[in-house]
Amino acid sequence: MTQDTKFHHGDATQNDSPIVEMKNIEKHFGNIIALAGVSFDVRPGECHCLLGDNGAGKSTFIKTMSGVHRPTKGEILFEGKPLNFATPRDAMEAGIATVFQDLAMIPLMSVTRNFFMGREPTTGRGLMKRFDVAKANEVTIEAMRQMGINLRGPDQAVGTLSGGERQTVAIARAVYFGAKVLILDEPTSALGVRQTSNVLATIDRVRKQGIGVVFISHNVRHALAVGDRFTVLNRGKTLGTAKRGEITPEELQDLMAGGQEMAALEGSLDGTI
Amino acid sequence: MNDTVQGAADERLKAEPLFAQLIKRPELGAVAGVILVVIFFSITADRSMFSLSGIINFMTPASQLGILAIGAALLMIGGEFDLSIGSMVAFSGLFFGVCAVTWHLPLVAAIPLTFIFAGAVGALSGNLVIRSGLPSFIVTLAFLFILRGLSLVGLKWATGGSTQLRGVREAVENDWLAPVFSGDAFPGLFAKLADMGLVATFNNGTPKVPGIPVEILWFVAIALIATYVLLRMPVGNWIFAAGGDRTAASNSGVPVNKVKVSLFMLTACCAALVAIITVMDAGSTDARRGFQKEFEAIIAAVVGGCLLTGGYGSAIGAFFGSIIFGMVVIGLTYTNFDQDWFQVFLGGMLLIAVMFNNAIRKRVTGER
Ligand SMILES: Nc1ncnc2c1ncn2[C@@H]1O[C@H](COP(=O)(O)OP(=O)(O)OP(=O)(O)O)[C@@H](O)[C@H]1O
Ligand SMILES: [Mg+2]
């Protein structure tokens, strides 16, 4: 347990076997090759960052992980067993929760209804089994408060929330449901300073509970603040995986930019990025 | 969709006036419409319109439409349309008639068979919509013609050349299940009420209103169940989600395709129920049964607050939308107006409702 960084980084987890292991995943959309053989795994209690340029294939990759896309080729192992999620619902039932880049929120529906969409808590039995609205409201309010946002009311339509508030609902929802793996696709892109550090702290918290976190970000500082391992994608391929401490922020940044021009750019901008 | 508010007070939240809260309810427009129409007819129509028999007079067509409209409303909230509802009434009416008359099946077999048959046709059109990815508008428009045509062909086949299948009344008259789907409920109660002088009677002492037509009871029951399902069951949330944004819903674990196909089946079964009730009532079925009902049902659903784009609306709104419809169709006969004003009214009401709904949606979503 080192004191030098903000968060604890677990080393003990290295021996654990991966929760999800993706081997040589390929994904083609018609004639577009979005992923050309990507291998990746996430272990319990670690935060594995997935980095890369725009269009590198990060979102496509995590979507094959969460059951949205079927891989064209490749193998997915869940807790050591081969598995093919037919729908996102299957992945959720296995304990994988995702914050999608587009958030998967429905503007016309209330925060609570969005929060529990597809996984509504029920009360009563048999014919009287019904959506437990009171409990759902309570959980939603509490989960949002933990993320540093005080909702005006759980029945507020998501369409009336600010972009960051919406993103927070999506994150709170995934954290609430992510029993084994939590996938976050650029969760902090619209967040304020306080909410961002809240999200990073949340990643740290769930990691300590033994959940595997997959974290996609364009921000090297955010990635370095919480990441245990870093995998860089470029044009549908992995450029490699580095452990924390094995790589400097500058090297990482260069890798993320495809290894080119970054140094030159940085020079002309006086190192402001 | 407004679940009870709780939580601490927020200094950035102005107290919301009751009116502003109400206006967010999808069914508000329909309730306001009912009030307006009642006021209109209390001024212009004969007093007897709002007597018990007058009310039953307009509630009967309202119910027959309303059963369809509630199905259509759920489907619209789920993000799809069904333009074949009216043809489905004729088609399942034909099927029911053939079961009862040609095959001499008892109602206990004929009715479930009709529902299964209708459900299967609904599943077919639903699956076509889902698998082809085409707008349901086009696919069900095709079914509008296919089913209407099949009803004609089928009727001629079943009757040997006629477009009317008679003899349903004779076939089902003494069936023990008949009172559930035809005639008036609670005749004993109404006879007693008439004896007590609470219900108006004819000269011979029989009550002017012999009971409540069963379709009204079905209508009320379906409206209540649909509202409960929408607002208080997980499936209700799935319907809103599937109609709101199918990708987001599916990515969040909602079985969107199953929800949508089930809704198509449900709408078809609503059409079958109306077919069974009206065929038993008329004692025969013909190819024009349910003609243009799809439009009236969609109008009632829209008046009830359903958005054409899906994801928003209410069953209770469709309930009131249908009552407005029934009141106007029948109410005009109690006035000195030409009855053909009805069509003008229907179109006008649709326009106003769509504009009203659009404004509401902007309020709810904060429109960005
Ligand atoms: N459904 C699709 N059909 C066709 N092409 C697609 C589809 N989804 C993604 N792609 C393509 O695959 C490539 C990778 O896209 P992806 O969304 O995974 O990128 P990303 O790494 O998440 O980028 P960003 O950082 O901008 O979010 C892009 O070139 C994109 O155009
Ligand atoms: Mg992306």
From TrEMBL, chain A:
Gene Ontology MF terms: ATP binding; ATP hydrolysis activity
Domain called ABC transporter: residue spans: 20-260
Family matches, as Pfam families: ABC_tran
Keyword terms, alphabetized: ATP-binding, Nucleotide-binding
Gene3D superfamilies reported in the protein's UniProt record: P-loop containing nucleotide triphosphate hydrolases (3.40.50.300)
Alphabetized CDD domains for the sequence: ABC_Carb_Monos_I (cd03216)
Protein name per Swiss-Prot or TrEMBL: ABC transporter ATP-binding protein
From TrEMBL, chain B:
Position of the signal peptide: none
Entry's localization field: Cell membrane
One Gene Ontology term of the molecular function aspect: transmembrane transporter activity
A Pfam family annotated for this UniProt entry: BPD_transp_2
Keyword Chloroplast: no
Recorded superkingdom: Bacteria
Its membrane topology: Multi-pass membrane protein
TM region positions: 28-46, 58-77, 83-103, 110-130, 136-159, 216-241, 261-280, 301-329, 341-360
Stated role: Part of the binding-protein-dependent transport system for D-xylose. Probably responsible for the translocation of the substrate across the membrane.
Name recorded for this polypeptide: Xylose transport system permease protein XylH
Organism, as annotated: Celeribacter baekdonensis B30
Highest classification ranks of the organism: Bacteria, Pseudomonadati, Pseudomonadota, Alphaproteobacteria, Rhodobacterales
